[in-house]
Amino acid sequence: MTKMLFVNLPVTDLARSKAFYEAVGFTNNPQFSDDNAVSMVWSDAIYVMLLKHDFWKTFTSKTIPDAHESAQVMLALSQDSQDAVEEIVRKAVAAGGKADPTPKQDLGFMYGRSFEDPDGHIWENAFMDMSALPEGDHPAEQPAS
């Protein structure tokens, strides 16, 4: 069986968040969407569940942090090209997101940019050309641009 990832995100406005994620390329799965949650599909293995705050609170008693003020995770999506990285960031901004809450990266073999969704969740987007990675180098050891 294919391993899958389900990312659950608390959102303040379910309709706005659904429209944002559709605008950047996710697809809605209505089978798992209702008045409390919307299922958004990135790929056969990656799903994002957008949950209203009241519904989120049924899963945990922990406080929902304001993602505009703090960050606990940065989510990352691989892209097929540097142009695809640019395009998803452009779409995110056009849909009400914020470009580049984290530094842009251009390491030669890897190019990355990020965006925030309307609730402040950070999405990194990267294109990696492993054939351009110098032999013996390790990506984690490269300084950010």
Automatic annotation (TrEMBL):
GO terms for molecular function: lyase activity. Gene3D superfamilies: 2,3-Dihydroxybiphenyl 1,2-Dioxygenase, domain 1 (3.10.180.10). InterPro entries: Glyas_Bleomycin-R_OHBP_Dase, Glyoxy/Ble-like_N, VOC_core. Residues 3-128 form the VOC domain. Keywords: Lyase. Pfam families: Ble-like_N. CDD domains: VOC_like. Coiled coil: none annotated. It comes from the Bacteria. SUPFAM superfamilies: Glyoxalase/Bleomycin resistance protein/Dihydroxybiphenyl dioxygenase. PANTHER family: BLR2408 PROTEIN, BLR2520 PROTEIN. This is Lactoylglutathione lyase.
